[in-house]
């Protein structure tokens, strides 16, 4: 499948059973009077607060409260986008889910278990691809598999070739990162993250440094890949239209210390293609996210101060 096609395959359609879960969903009686169990949470954050200790060499020993009280429940296969003002704690929260940071308060669980640290069940995709320049594209994709020694070399290379095919870069397997455009490098980055077959993809502004046209193509491809592989995705972005296009739900963070001020369900049909951006529902959704974001930022400002850096 090429990355140049705007359309997604029919297999990307989500069935009603895959409908987005809702935070705070309660057991509800069905018409026959019995209680319907909500789907078991795959990822569950309850009252999560995260503080940083004093920076090394800092006098006075002040801590920084980055995240105050985040409640978020995700079912397997959910795609949740987080938007919020700069410095509100989005990356901090993502890093805690990745297992790079401990939570200070509350609980953060994956499949009912506290997150003890990083693990192969989660993979991060950052804004910059950070590929190894001396390795070929194929060898960059196999890198994580080599480190984990989870399979034989031939098997790892076969998987890497499949993934390069998936992201439309089969033809570039023997090239080196320096020979690729920024968008192509980010596709390799995505393939590398997928190589370890993570259950959860954590993406921190992965398309922020890619040109607008390539970004829109990548968004469609990311949705297709996550749906085909039933990957749970938590995606940070400053781009409101990107959040609206990708998400089952958009979580709007308020200013630091961050918490979710509103969780907005996205009812746009799937599979999504570029045409969806022209729907009035899409425009209304973008407006709702924008209003929430700016409302949250404004409420945190002392009167007379200019607005803090917000979403683009
Ligand atoms: N290692 C650290 N030690 C102390 N404070 C930190 C550290 N990392 C981040 N912070 C602070 O925590 C707060 C949240 O940072 P974070 O990077 O999570 O925000 P963000 O919402 O991802 O920002 P942006 O949108 O600009 O990337 C900021 O005030 C930041 O300065």
TrEMBL record:
Keyword vocabulary terms for this entry: ATP-binding, Nucleotide-binding, Transport
Pfam families assigned to the protein according to its UniProt record, in alphabetical order: ABC_tran (PF00005)
GO molecular function: ATP binding; ATP hydrolysis activity
Region spans: Disordered: 1-38
Alphabetical list of InterPro entries matching this protein: AAA+_ATPase (IPR003593), ABC_transporter-like_ATP-bd (IPR003439), ABC_transporter-like_CS (IPR017871), ABC_transporter_ATP-bind (IPR050166), P-loop_NTPase (IPR027417)
Sequence ranges assigned to domain ABC transporter in this UniProt record: 41-280
Ranges annotated as biased composition (Polar residues): 22-35
Protein name as annotated: NitT/TauT family transport system ATP-binding protein
Organism for this UniProt entry: Actinacidiphila guanduensis
